[in-house]
UniProtKB/TrEMBL annotation:
The lineage of its organism: Bacteria, Pseudomonadati, Pseudomonadota, Gammaproteobacteria, Pseudomonadales. InterPro entries: DUF4123 (IPR025391). Pfam families: DUF4123. Residues 22-133 form the DUF4123 domain. This is DUF4123 domain-containing protein.
Length: 284
């Protein structure tokens, strides 16, 4: 697998006097993040989730690191494994690290309560699909202070230049949120949001489950069950996740199964009312 394009891109950006940065998905790259935090000055990195509504997830959220040494062996390690989808590179004007973090913090939350979700800007697959979909004139609103970006798009390395880097307000109707979402990406996003919800609201019970079984497999099976039942509303998914955590041996009661000729709304109302009654929260 050739690393020539990102190497050439780094050299060209440095020649132009730009600063290089790494946008790292630290959820799956703990060792790389730890190594970078040990050696970089505090003003050369930022946790994007800090000072946001999801600050409690900062430890598993994206970090941005200024890495002005293209010969850093840690960069070489990342370039060897682009299929791990660890993030992407950007070039900035010197001193624009905080501006880039502010840019993505403003675009972090998608939708309105109670249907908010996190936009996974740090995922190179998300970035690649966005820049492929967007017209060039929409790049500044999407890329903000980034002068140029370099990323693995699933099959090869690619780079995209921003025609007007700088601070941009968030559009009323961002084009990047209107693009069709591939089924795999939608599934991954739902899984990530379910994981985030349980970490934020039920961390102790979730940790106990993770000690006994594969939490991702458990989450995936529940989301598949929600699809089969037609439970797509956030309150329905939250109810299913929460009650499954409380269930003995994490197995839902038999009466939760859908009845013949019962639509998803009737099914959810019956199960939620019965659950409230047995838990002493409401009359049957």
């Amino acid at each position: 697998m050739t690393h020539s394009l990102p190497r050439q891109w780094m050299s060209e950006q440095r020649r132009l006097g730009h600063s290089l940065c790494l946008v790292l998905d630290s959820a799956d790259e703990h060792e790389m993040r730890r190594s970078l935090l040990k050696t970089l000055p505090f003003d050369q990195y930022l946790s994007v989730y800090r000072e946001t509504p999801v600050a409690e997830l900062a430890d598993v959220g994206p970090f941005i690191f200024i890495l002005d040494n293209p010969d850093d062996p840690r960069l070489h390690e990342l370039l060897k494994v682009p299929e791990r989808n660890w993030g992407w590179f950007a070039s900035l004007q010197h001193g624009d690290l905080l501006a880039l973090a502010k840019h993505w913090r403003e675009r972090l939350m998608i939708g309105a309560r109670p249907q908010q979700a996190l936009y996974r800007f740090h995922d190179n697959r998300v970035l690649a699909r966005a820049v492929e979909y967007l017209p060039v004139e929409a790049y500044p609103a999407y890329l903000g202070p980034a002068i140029s970006v370099c990323y693995w798009q699933g099959e090869r390395w690619a780079s995209t230049d921003n025609p007007a880097p700088g601070a941009c307000p968030v559009p009323d109707e961002p084009l990047w949120l209107q693009m069709p979402v591939p089924k795999l990406q939608a599934t991954e996003a739902r899984l990530a949001n379910a994981h985030r919800h349980l970490l934020a609201e039920h961390v102790e019970a979730y940790a106990r489950l993770a000690e006994q079984q594969d939490h991702e497999a458990w989450l995936s099976s529940l989301l598949a069950l929600a699809d089969a039942w037609g439970w797509s509303a956030p309150e329905q998914l939250a109810f299913l996740l929460t009650q499954s955590l409380k269930a003995p041996a994490y197995t839902l009661p038999v009466h939760w199964q859908v009845r013949p000729d019962e639509n998803p709304i009737e099914h959810f109302e019956r199960v939620s009312q019965a659950t409230a009654f047995w838990q002493g929260d409401a009359p049957l």
